[in-house]
Amino acid sequence: xxxxxxxxxxxxxxxxxxxxxxxxxxxxxxxxxxxxxxxxxxxxxxxxxxxxxxxxxxxxxxxxxxxxxxxxxxxxxxxxxxxxxxxxxxxxxxxxxxxxxxxxxxxxxxxxxxxxxxxxxxxxxxxxxxxxxxxxxxxxxxxxxxxxxxxxxxxxxxxxxxxxxxxxxxxxxxxxxxxxxxxxxxxxxxxxxxxxxxxxxxxxxxxxxxxxxxxxxxxxxxxxxxxxxxxxxxxxxxxxxxxxxxxxxxxxxxxxxxxxxxxxxxxxxxxxxxxxxxxx
Length: 280
Ligand code: C2E
Ligand code: MG
Ligand code: MG
Ligand code: MG
Hints:
Number of helices: 11
Structural class: alpha/beta
Bound molecules: ligand C2E, magnesium ion
Largest sheet: 8 strands, mixed, barrel
Distance between the termini: 50 Å
Strand content: 15-25%
Oligomer: single chain
């Protein structure tokens, strides 16, 4: 895969791969300027308590609108940003903007609950990582206890002792941690053991066919039990049907997120739907 080219130093390509690489290089070139050009934005997806349907938080999700290519999915550009050293700057912006938005909603009379922010492991690197992230939270005067960091792994980055110390310090300030996409990629039992996170998010991959596939159902069941035994709160991603929400609630899953409840949407739509003016 072309993605490996950066790390390996060199790779031999066939024609199809060459096109992919040029494309990557162009995207990276444009992505490096996307932030200052105002092409990045955030949308927010509600997270609801399954038992009551009540809004308990939102997750911020990054969007990139390229002037020629249109919307580029995060699954495409975030791994590029991570591998080419762009994610530190972008990630700090995401954190600052998410906190700013939380505060803006509050000023408009809307308490959304916690703000969940995706953070790549690469953002934990570097001597100033801890200070600059805490600064971003404090500058927005958001209570650290309302921030939840979703630890997102798209590539294996060793959870170093420095990262763990950093996470410990943020935890002491009241920041919560969630292990994202549990059971896929590199988000595994090792992370569960090392991170001592407050929440575990079951990936949509297991939720989507759970009602028809006994194996998936067993995996979800076991994951909820495991997380509960460890004293964690469990969030299920990608809930698209009422029957899935009910089933998950029966297993003891606490929080749900997915199109069944709400799609990711701009901040103004969150205010309209859940704010003081909303019809209930
Ligand atoms: P994620 O953190 O697991 O986020 C959930 C993804 O599932 C989002 O995709 C969301 O739009 C999608 N989703 C939510 N409910 C449903 C549903 O019911 N059905 C289906 N089919 N999909 C649903 P999105 O926004 O494309 O983001 C993809 C991934 O990109 C995220 O997965 C996260 O890993 C990463 N990402 C997004 N924003 C950021 C960011 O600011 N920083 C970092 N480091 N990663 C981010
Ligand atoms: Mg997430
Ligand atoms: Mg997730
Ligand atoms: Mg996921």
